[in-house]
Amino acid sequence: MSIVTELEKEFEKAPIFRAILDSLPEMIFIFDNKGRLTKVNAKVQIFLKQNKEIIFSDESGKEVECKLDVEIEDDNPLIRDCFIRNIVKEVRQTKKAIYNRQGYLNIFLTNKTKKIKILLNALPFRFENSDYVIVTIRDVQNIKKYEEQHIKDMHKFSVIGESVSTIVHDLKNPLTGLAGYLELLKMTDSKEKKELFYEKMEQGIDRLKTMLQDILNIAAGINDMILDKTYINVKELFLDVINLLNIEHLVKLKIDENIYVYGDRDKLHNVFWNILKNAEEALPHGEGEIKVEVIEYDKTLKIIISDTGKGIPEEIKDELFTLGATFGKSKGTGFGLASVKKIIDAHNGRIRFESLTNKGTTFYIRLPK
Ligand SMILES: Nc1ncnc2c1ncn2[C@@H]1O[C@H](COP(=O)(O)OP(=O)(O)O)[C@@H](O)[C@H]1O
Ligand SMILES: [Mg+2]
Where is the Histidine kinase domain (predicted)? Predict the structure, then answer.
């Protein structure tokens, strides 16, 4: 690539051209009027640092044979294959651009070849009485991944936006209810009626607690996880959570009094609140039970939470821990387990589950002590 062309001189005069070329995410090759490779951009150079040569193949994935009459004067070692050479020749002959030609870029790894899908554009252009061909190559595989991620992120944000506005809107209902029953309480002397109003008010407060927890979950899903760690007594933590949840089913706790975990109390509270709340919601009225067992090892704790409920629906098993995965609940947000996973990850722990339809669900959590 030592051939100094008019074009190369131009690049030296105006470094802006070089800067623009180097800033592009595509691989760019410029060929001169003899079909010689005269310039590549930074993207190509970066690729060449990791791979000795650049070999493309056509749409079918096969390496392309050079057409016999390709007249290329230099035998550039960088581009060994004929996929590009044939294309350059085609453009030079027809003076027409080629857009979106499919092919593959081959990357040689120690024991296999990886093929990356590419799209190629080739454009003829004239400069100072010479003809050039500029070839740009896009790695569509990565673009696709990027676009898919972008769509997922946008989806995530719209789910969050919608849920927050629904929750905030719905906060009014239990609040109005509470205010109403308070007024009624003031006006009645009947013991029975008072009991009924107390119960209704308790239900309203429970609903508010759940809604606030939903908002906490959303915050956990969006924010970076910064942990405020202390030594936490695990049994006390579970008793707190169960107390807050008003569980109507039997909860069997098998936790030694003196097991501690070093973690963020509020966040772990959030974790067990979500799992136990889901377990409670999965049980039919007045039937079934929930079990919590904590086993202590040298450096870790294993926490097993199981219920005898309806089981996790097949429809969401694969994406259970992703934001917005909810199924079969009128007020579900799908933020609970997403937030659980994020918190467990932040504690360098692990979480998995087993679930059988109408038999029950078990969550297994590992946490470093
Ligand atoms: N213990 C369980 N038993 C049955 N289904 C469960 C259990 N835990 C979670 N699920 C299912 O997983 C879904 C996601 O749970 P979660 O992330 O807490 O969101 P939400 O409870 O708001 O729907 C629930 O909608 C439910 O269908
Ligand atoms: Mg939930």
Answer: 166-369
Task: Give the per-residue pLDDT at 165.
Answer: 79
User: Over the stretch 32-45, which tens digit does the pLDDT of each residue have?
Assistant: 887 778 888 888 88
> 303 C-alpha to center of ligand 2: Å?
18
| Cβ < 6 A, ligand 1 pocket | 274, 278-279, 282, 307, 309-313, 316, 320, 325-329, 332-334, 336-338, 361
Ion ligand 2 neighbours (CB, 5 A) are: 278, 336
- Beta-bridge partners for 63: 57
Spatial contact of 185 and 197, defined as CB atoms under 8 Å apart: yes
The Cα 232–Cα 261 span in angstroms is 5
Give the range with max mean pLDDT: 174-178, 203-207, 304-308, 324-328: 304-308
Task: List Cβ neighbours of 318 (8 Å cut-off, separation of 6 or more).
Answer: none
3-state secondary structure at position 303: strand
Q: 263 CA distance to ligand 1 centroid (A)?
A: 24
- Shortest-distance Cα residue to atom 13 of ligand 1: 326
Q: How far apart are CA 256 and CA 317, in angstroms?
A: 32
Tell me the domains of the chain and their CATH numbers.
6-140 (3.30.450.20), 223-368 (3.30.565.10)
> Mean pLDDT: which of 42-51, 56-65, 308-317 is highest?
308-317
Q: Which atom of ligand 1 is nearest to the CA of 278?
A: 8
Query: pLDDT for 111-128, tens place per residue?
Result: 777 888 889 999 998 888
Asked whether residue 223 carries a pLDDT value surpassing 70, the answer given is no
- pLDDT class of 76 with cuts at 50, 70, 90: low
Look at ligand 1, atom 10, and give the residue with the nearest C-alpha: 312
